Amino acid sequence: MLSSIRNRLILIALFVAAAVFSLIPRDVTTRVRAPNGAMSDTTVRRVPLKLGLDLQGGIHLALEIDESQGVVIADDAIDRALTVIRTRIDEFGVAEPLIQKVGTDRIVVELAGITDPERAKQIVLRSAFLEFRIVDMQNRFRDALGSIDAALARAGVRVRGGEQPEGTPTAVEQLLGVDSAAAADSVAADSTMGEETPAVLSSYLFTFGGAVPGEFYVPEESYLLVDSLIRLDVTQRAIPRGLDLVWGMEPVSQGSRPYRPLYAVENDAIIEGDKLADANATIDPVTRGAIVQFQLTRSGGRIFGRETARHVNDYMAIMLDGRVHRQPPVIRSQIRRDGQIELGNASLQEAQDLALVLRAGALPAPITIVEERTVGPSLGRDSIGKGRLAGLIAVSVVVVIMAAYYRMAGLLAIAALAFYVLFALGGLASLGATLTLPGLAGFVLSLGIAVDANVLIFERVREEIGLSKTTRAAVDGGFQHAMPAIIDANITTMLTAAFLFQFGTGPVRGFAVTLIIGILASLITAVFVTRTFFLIWLRQRAATKELSI
């Protein structure tokens, strides 16, 4: 079948059509499933040959589970975190991101072409743990303040110079994981270092008119001091059972002075974010403020409806990542599946980011950045320019040498190399490969391999002509006898590239993929396309007794 020139041309045309189709940009709509089971459609513009981080700029993040916060880490936490992060990035709209698990405890995220790396980092790192809790409607914490102060006094916790109470961990010590219980036990009741006074928690807590039950305000300058006090085990043991103390997200102004809200809330949430089905950002037509409208799943709606019906006229705290979001609203009536979160002065983009991470679900554990690299777009453009220049020089040198040394046969090989470039780029596009600087190096190297195959063939053809064979017999013999050497050389190179892909990471794998695709394209062009061109030329020059080679 392939001995016919017509059939050969049809097959080449099919290869060309497939390559061109792979290189056409188009919109692709995919269904994204969030960890909570919700499905959403995401449409992205598919770029046939996407550029890597080193060519168009962007951000590289290496993430690991943060075990310093003392939370219990599940065995599958890293896999669940990978799913959540991938969903968030898909909805964020980054074209062709790289999100992969490396080893057993690390996630690598590469976002090429983004213009706001800080925003992307916040979306990736945010825990987005959503809870709805009822506040301390009976004011049990307020009534227990006297006993809490007495417990602190008995433990000998004292405040020196208005700073943190002696024995409580500093901000640095908290980052290093100092045990607050051990710190409290080390407090000496008769300490004489500096001017000290007994720690009285109630003296730092204020209420104002119209306050929500369980709501207190702490002067912003005393925020770290009070936070250290309430973290002590002696304080935690004195807090009434079933209550937690949580801070508001941001300080508020009362008069001209900033205060940090502190809330006593029930420690059992009436519902959590895993019951969220959808969330969307919009502008409230009445207040003109940004809001996030959410919808719960069917089971979540039943639970929320039952619990809110029990707590009509109670205040409900909306908590995100362990902080109370704004002042808790009062439950006026039963709420079922639909609700909204008011964001006040926040921008619509902030509301959209919050809705995005809520839809994607909460991370199973806190994560931290262990490696970060940012590549500016100007550096990427410079790399592209130098890579293009190197490629043009390499191709020009090859074209000149082939045409000068092999004459007409060299020109046929050069025409076949144009098909090689098309096939190689089409193969990379069909695989969704990312073109990086090492990938460009692999592409140029495979171009040299394609030329090397042609050199082997032409030299064997010359040998056949030296044996006084006819032109057609010399061409057939040259291709036939050069084939074993070409196949051996290409297979060994492909095996090496396969090992690089299997055991390498990042740029090394990009080099390996480009090299493998280039080798396959060079085999097709050198063995099949170039021979087809020879057959066409020989048929047009049937009377020619000599071959220009």
Written account of the structure:
This protein is elongated. The longest helix is centred in the last third of the chain and has 55 residues. Helices cover 48% and strands 20% of the residues. By secondary structure, the protein is an alpha+beta fold. Helix 14 runs parallel beside helix 16.
User: End-to-end span in angstroms?
Assistant: 28 Å
Proportion of β residues? Answer: 15-25%
Instruction: Tell me, briefly, the overall form.
Output: elongated
Largest sheet: 4 strands, antiparallel
Radius of gyration based on Cα positions: 34 Å
Number of helices: 16
Q: What's the total count of β strands?
A: 21
Sheet/helix structural class: alpha+beta
The main sheet orders its strands as 5-6-4-20
Mean model confidence by pLDDT: 79
What's a concise summary of this model?
With 549 residues, the chain is an alpha+beta fold. Helix content is 48%, strand content 20%. It has a four-stranded antiparallel beta sheet with strand order 5-6-4-20. It has a four-stranded antiparallel beta sheet with strand order 14-7-17-18.
